[in-house]
Amino acid sequence: MDVSADACCAPLVSQPLNEAETMELAPLFKALADPVRLRLLSLIASHEGGEACVCDLTVPFDLTAPTISHHLKVLKQAGLIESERRGTWVYYWINPEVLARMSALLGPATALTGSPA
Amino acid sequence: MDVSADACCAPLVSQPLNEAETMELAPLFKALADPVRLRLLSLIASHEGGEACVCDLTVPFDLTAPTISHHLKVLKQAGLIESERRGTWVYYWINPEVLARMSALLGPATALTGSPA
DNA sequence: TCTCTAATTTGACACCCATCTATGCAGCAG
DNA sequence: CTGCTGCATAGATGGGTGTCAAATTAGAGA
Question: Which residues in chain B have Cβ-Cβ distances shorter than 8 Å to A43?
Answer without folding.
Answer: 16
